[in-house]
Amino acid sequence: MKKKMICCTIALLLISSSVVSAHPGRTDARGGHTCRTNCERWGLSYGEYHYHNGGSSSGSKSAASAPKSSQKSTTKSTAPKPAAPAYTKSGLSVYFNGSKVKFDSEPLVYNNINLVPLREIAEGMGAQVTWNRDAGSIGVQRGNHKMTLTIGSKTVYYNGKSETVTVAPKLINGVTYVPIQVFARGLGAGINYSDYDKTLRISFGG
After folding, report:
1. What is the per-residue pLDDT across 31-53, written as a single tens digit (0 to 9) for each?
2. At CA 74, angle to CA 68 and CA 79, rounded to 5?
3. What does the alpha-carbon distance between residue 199 and residue 120 come to, in Å, rounded to a whole number?
4. What is the enclosing helix (H) or strand (E) of 15?
């Protein structure tokens, strides 16, 4: 008799504890349901899925479980810098036998080499120029001195003998430019350059 009473008492306690931990609402086949009524009273959030049998609850709100990224991309795309021009104005003044050579196009500097327009420097030094447009070659002659240059080629012929120069003759904005030192040497002239006032003096010896 006492054993039956003890068993009944334990059963009542289990039932009452289950009732205390529960709240209104039908459960599904898994023994749980979604809270819709008096959720805060039972320590739950509205819409939270939980179990009445003490199982762990699972929130149905995606906002609660999905962390929000507060980081923003700070990477800035940098535009490539424009390339520096290959040629710059040199401000060079050229004198031949004391007379200043006039240029229609500005003398330029490229890789620290002074370039001058071919036509004006040839006329200023009294040289004759012949063109072979098919071959892209230029013949220049004054007296017994003759040289042959080719646009874009560093090979120069002095009286038929080939030599390699630092900078090739170039066609820039429709104007043929030649290295002034190479040109003067090909005609047998001497040069004297002053960096102080950017002046180049050309003369023939004797």
Report:
1. 676 776 666 666 666 667 666 65
2. 145
3. 16
4. helix 2-21
Q: What is the DSSP string of 58-107?
A: EE--HHHHSPPP---------PPPPPPPS-EE---EEEETTEEPP-SS--
Provide the CATH topology of domain 88-203: Copper Amine Oxidase; Chain A, domain 1 (3.30.457)
Delimit the domains of the chain by residue range: 2-22+31-61, 88-203
Per the structure block, which two tokens stand in for 134? 């098919």
Is the pTM for the entire model greater than 0.70? no
Helix (H, G, I), strand (E, B) or coil at 122: helix
Chain position carrying tokens 């049998």: 53
CA distance 85 to 3: 106
